[in-house]
Write a structure and sequence with these properties.
CATH topology of the largest domain in chain B: MetI-like fold
CATH architecture of the largest domain in chain A: Orthogonal Bundle
Largest sheet of chain A: none
Oligomer: heterodimer
Distance between the termini of chain A: 25 Å
CATH architecture of the largest domain in chain B: Orthogonal Bundle
Strand content of chain B: under 5%
Number of helices of chain A: 13
Structural class of chain A: mainly alpha
Strand content of chain A: under 5%
CATH class of the largest domain in chain A: Mainly Alpha
Radius of gyration of chain A: 25 Å
Shape of chain A: flat
Helix content of chain B: over 70%
Distance between the termini of chain B: 17 Å
C-alpha cells in the first residue's frame, strides 16, 4: 500500500513536471527519460493498488481512474512531444480547448441530436417494443412467429434505413427518431418476451393456487421478473439510439446536430472540433447508460447480481 | 424425460396441431402479415404521387387503376415488395458480377471489408481478454474502460478514421476494415473474459489436485470452457462489423459497397435501389451470422458437445 501510494505520488509529480517542461522547451533526452519513469512508476503503483481489496473504492474507482489519467497523459505527451500532425490525432489539450471555446455550438448540437431525436426515438421505440411484447405474450402462436424474426433483425444493419426515413419524415429530428424507433424496437421486444417467460413454474403455480387472474399474475409476478431483461434491453438501446441518431444525420439534416457537425468539420479538416463532438457524444452516451444502470439498481435490488455485492 | 412424456397429450396430434405448434407456420403467418401491410402501406404512402400522376393523365381512374399505379411508380415513396424483388433479381442475377451496377459486386466489396475487420477484431479481442484474465492489474485498470467505451457511440468516429487513414495513404478496404475491427473487438473481449472465468472453483480445485501448471489450466480448462461464450459474442461482433463497414462507406463518397449504394440511392431518390441494397445488406448479415453458427456447431461437435 505504502509503496503503491509513493509510486503514484512520484508519477503524478513527474507528470506535472514533464508537462511544464513540454510547455517551455523542446523535448530532450532527459524529458523522455522522465516520461518513461512516470509510466513505469504509475504502472508499479497500479500493480500494488490493484491487489488491495478493501476499501472497495480503490479497486472500483481509483485504479481505473488513475489508469485513465495515465492514458490521457501519454496521449498528450506523445502527440506534442513527437509533433504528431493535429490532423492525424490532436492532443487532448487541444480537444479540451476546442470543447470549452465552442460550448454554445456543442450545446445546440446536443439539444438537436440527443434531447430531440435520441430521447424521443428511444422512448417511443422501447415503449412500443415493450407494449407489443406484453400483448404478443398472450398468444403463443404470434410469439413463435415473432421471436425468430426478431432474432434475425439483430443480424441486419438497420442503420441502412436512414436514407428512407429521411425521405419519409424530412430532414429534421423526426426522421432520426424514426430510425431509432426501428432500431430499438426489436431488442426490446425479444428481451421482454424472454423476460416474461422467465418466471419459474413454481412461482406460477403459486399464483395459480392464489386464484390470481392473468392481470394479477402479470403485475405481481411476471413483469417484476422480466425487469432485469427489460433493463438489459434499455441499456443496449441507449447505445443503439445514439449511434442511430448520429449516423442518420449523415444522410441529411438541418444545419445543426452532432452527426452533421462531424461530417461538416471533417470536410473542413477541422479535426479538433470533430474530436470535441465525439467527446460530447461519449460523455452523453456514458451518462445515459449510467443513469439507466442506476435506475435498474433501484428497481431490481432483489436480483442476485446486486445482492451478492452487498454481502 | 418422464415429465416430457407425461405432458404430451394422449393420442396422435392432428396435422394442423403439429403445424400450429411448430415454428414454420407462425413465422409464415407473421411474414404474410408484413407483406400485406407493406402493400397497403405502399398504397397509402404513394397516394399523393398517384393522385398527381392521374391528374396529369386527365382520365377518370377507378380503384383498380389507382392501386395499380401506386404499385408500379418509378420513384415511389414506398416501393411495393414485388418492385423491390424484381430490382433485386435484376441486379443480382442478370447483370455482370464485376459491373458496378451489380449488387453482388457491392456486397463483395462490403463483405470483404467486414471479414478482414472481423478477423483482426477477433484476434485483438481474444488477446485482450487473455491479458485481462491472467493479469490482475489489467483487469482492474483496463476492463472498466472497455466497458465504458461500449456506451460510447463509436460509430461516430468512423468518418474520421476514414479521413485520417486516407491522409496516411490508406484507402479502399483497409480503413473500413479498421472501423469494423474497432467496433467488433469489444463484444468479443467481454464475452471471452466471461467465458475464461466461467470454470467454477470446483473444477479449478480439481486442476490443482492434478498439479496442473497455469498454462495447462488455461488450455485444458479455461479455453474449452470459454467457447460457449465466445461464439454468441462472435455472432454479435460480425453483425456489428458489417454495420461498421457500411457506415464506413457513407461519408467519403466511396464508389463501391452497399453503403455507397444506399447513399447514391438517397441522392437521386432511387427508392427501389435503396430497398434492394437494404435487402442485400440484410441477407449478407444473416449469411455471416449463419456462417459463424455453422463454425460454432462444428467446433462444439469436435469438442464432444452433444448437439
Amino acid at each position: 500500500m505504502k509503496t503503491g501510494a509513493a509510486a503514484i505520488a512520484f508519477a503524478l509529480a513527474g507528470a506535472v513536471a514533464s508537462l511544464l517542461l513540454l510547455e517551455t522547451t523542446a523535448p530532450t533526452l532527459a524529458f523522455w527519460a522522465l516520461v518513461v519513469a512516470v509510466t513505469i512508476a504509475s504502472w508499479i503503483g497500479l500493480e500494488r493498488l490493484a491487489h488491495i481489496d478493501k476499501p472497495r473504492w480503490i479497486g472500483a474507482i481509483l485504479v481505473p481512474g488513475l489508469f485513465g489519467l495515465l492514458l490521457l497523459y501519454l496521449w498528450q505527451v506523445l502527440t506534442v512531444g513527437l509533433e504528431v500532425p493535429p490532423i492525424l490525432l490532436p492532443s487532448p489539450a487541444r480537444i479540451g480547448h476546442q470543447l470549452v471555446t465552442n460550448l454554445d455550438l456543442e450545446w445546440q448540437d446536443f439539444r438537436q441530436t440527443f434531447l430531440k431525436s435520441v430521447l424521443a426515438g428511444f422512448v417511443m421505440g422501447s415503449g412500443l417494443g415493450f407494449i407489443v411484447a406484453v400483448l404478443v405474450d398472450r398468444s403463443p402462436f404470434l410469439q413463435r412467429g415473432l421471436l425468430p424474426l426478431g432474432a434475425l433483425v439483430s443480424a441486419i444493419p438497420v442503420v441502412g434505413i436512414a436514407p428512407i426515413m429521411v425521405m419519409w419524415f424530412g430532414f429534421d429530428w423526426e426522421s432520426k427518431a424514426a430510425v431509432i424507433v426501428v432500431m430499438t424496437f426489436f431488442p426490446m421486444l425479444v428481451n421482454t418476451l424472454a423476460g416474461l417467460a422467465s418466471a419459474g413454474g413454481i412461482e406460477r403455480d403459486l399464483m395459480h393456487s392464489y386464484a390470481a387472474d392473468y392481470g394479477q399474475t402479470l403485475a405481481k409476478l411476471r413483469l417484476p421478473s422480466a425487469l432485469p431483461f427489460v433493463f438489459n434491453a434499455l441499456k443496449i438501446n441507449s447505445t443503439l439510439a445514439l449511434i442511430g441518431g448520429i449516423v442518420a444525420e449523415f444522410f441529411g439534416t438541418p444545419v445543426v446536430g452532432m452527426g452533421f457537425r462531424i461530417s461538416v468539420e471533417i470536410g473542413r479538416m477541422n479535426v479538433d472540433m470533430v474530436w470535441a463532438t465525439i467527446a460530447v457524444a461519449a460523455l452523453a452516451g456514458s451518462v445515459f447508460y449510467g443513469t439507466l444502470a442506476l435506475i435498474e439498481r433501484g428497481f431490481t435490488f432483489w436480483h442476485p447480481s446486486y445482492r451478492q455485492e452487498r454481502s | 424425460m418422464t415429465t416430457d412424456a407425461l405432458s404430451r397429450p394422449l393420442g396422435q396430434p392432428s396435422a394442423f396441431g403439429r403445424l400450429y405448434n411448430g415454428t414454420a407456420l407462425p413465422v409464415a403467418v407473421v411474414l404474410a402479415i408484413v407483406v400485406v401491410a407493406w402493400y397497403l402501406g405502399a398504397i397509402w404512402l404513394n397516394a399523393g404521387l398517384v393522385e398527381q400522376r392521374l391528374a396529369q393523365a386527365e382520365k377518370p381512374a377507378g380503384l383498380a387503376e389507382f392501386v395499380h399505379t401506386a404499385w408500379s411508380l418509378d420513384r415511389p415513396v414506398l416501393p411495393a415488395p414485388h418492385q423491390v424483388a424484381i430490382e433485386f433479381y435484376d441486379s443480382v442475377f442478370t447483370r455482370d458480377v464485376t459491373s458496378p451496377r451489380s449488387l453482388v459486386f457491392h456486397a463483395y466489396v462490403t463483405g470483404s471489408a467486414t471479414l478482414v475487420g472481423f478477423v483482426f477484431g477477433t484476434l485483438l479481442g481474444v488477446l485482450l481478454a487473455v491479458g485481462i484474465v491472467s493479469w490482475r492489474t489489467l483487469d482492474r485498470s483496463l476492463l472498466p474502460w472497455i466497458i465504458t467505451s461500449q456506451t460510447i457511440p463509436i460509430l461516430a468516429i468512423a468518418p474520421m478514421i476514414i479521413v485520417v487513414l486516407g491522409n496516411v495513404g490508406l484507402t479502399g478496404l483497409m480503413p473500413k476494415a479498421v472501423i469494423s475491427m474497432y467496433l467488433c473487438f469489444f463484444p468479443i473481449t467481454i464475452g471471452m473474459v466471461k467465458g475464461l472465468r466461467s470454470p467454477d472453483p470446483l473444477q479449478l480445485d480439481l486442476m490443482r489436485t492434478y498439479s496442473a501448471s497455469p498454462s495447462q489450466v488455461f488450455w485444458k480448462l479455461r479455453c474449452p470452457a470459454s467457447m460457449a461464450f465466445l461464439f454468441p459474442s462472435l455472432k454479435v461482433a460480425i453483425a456489428i462489423s458489417l454495420v461498421g463497414a457500411i457506415v464506413g462507406e457513407l461519408p467519403t463518397g466511396a464508389q463501391a459497397g452497399l453503403g455507397a449504394r444506399l447513399l447514391t440511392g438517397s441522392y437521386y431518390g432511387q427508392t427501389v435501389q435503396i430497398w434492394s441494397a437494404l435487402f442485400m445488406a440484410a441477407l449478407l448479415g444473416m449469411a455471416l451470422v449463419a456462417a459463424v453458427g455453422v463454425v460454432e456447431r462444428l467446433t462444439l461437435r469436435h469438442m464432444g458437445a452433444r448437439p
